[in-house]
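[DERIVE STRUCTURE TOKENS]
===
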Amino acid sequence: MGGRSMKSVSKKRQACVREFFPAGVPRLWCPLLTHYRDDGAIDFDRMSAHFHHIVPWVKGFLIPGSTGDGWELDEQETMQVAEFALQQARKQEIYLLLGALKRDTDSMQRTISGMLKLIDPKGMTGENDRVRTLKKKRVCGFTVCPAAGKTLTQADLEAGLSVILDQGLPTALYQLPQVTENEVSVETFGRLVETYSNLIFFKDSSGQDRIATSAVDKGGVFLVRGAEGDYVGWLREAGGPYTGFLLSTANCFARELSTLIGNLEKGDRKKAGEISERLTAAITEVFALVQPLPCGNAFTNANKAIDHFFAFGPRADTKEGPMLHAKVRIPDDVIAATGSILTRRQLMPARGYLD
């Protein structure tokens, strides 16, 4: 595709972004945790309390994301969580990416179709009607990963993503090789950007940042980093390639991360660096603690352990650990050690949001 066509696609993308984000795209996004009751059922009351605790600092949410057990939820649970997200979005001035985190293209399509029925049971017809309906429900896009499989070629990945993008829906592409066992290459990303103006958002949690740091024309796609730690150098104010963050730790450190971004916007890299160093140290320690756990993923488990203290305060280690999707709890020793880390790093809340 020639430069003139690329400019045309980029112009349409920018118009799409302005349509969904008239005040600008939020720079901090959170993949909200999914909480569970003792019987393993989803605890929407707890999720609501957690949501209201962080929403003053976070205006963009991915639900369900990886940290919200998006890969573990069955289809019924996925729709329940999506419906919860739509309810919260109606009540708050937030933006919502709905996660269709499935391992193959057909499953992604089915999940997106189910979410569209939740958004508008009567069915959206025509591009203008679709945009109006999604905006009304505060939905700015659907998030997908490339199909999972380490033997898939770039042609396979591109073909599968093209099927999704051909629907014309605003779409976020999520790079997560820890789950998919593959990565969209710089060249494949470039072709998708050249072709699809509805590809508006890109998240990279690989920690390799190949696309963001490449010379490929991003065409106005909004780039957010999902890998944790050393936050300051990755944002544009510090010369980095990303415009924002979509971080699991926004579940726990939303205020600190929002303040860090604000400091960078004001040109105060020193204060931003101090926050980054403290968060990075604490998060690195807690992530190491949860690595041996046999259930769940490190992003979920670490944030559930930390959020346990934000929910119940300094004495949270006297309560049972949080339930995981596998219907097992995070062990007491992990919870106790997490509390010690938060205290030592001066990140322990004075009281919990459930107190």
About this structure: The beta strands are 28-31, 60-63, 95-99, 139-144, 171-175, 199-204, 222-225, 244-246. The radius of gyration is 20 Å. The domain at 3-267 is CATH 3.20.20.70 (TIM Barrel). The longest strand covers residues 139-144.
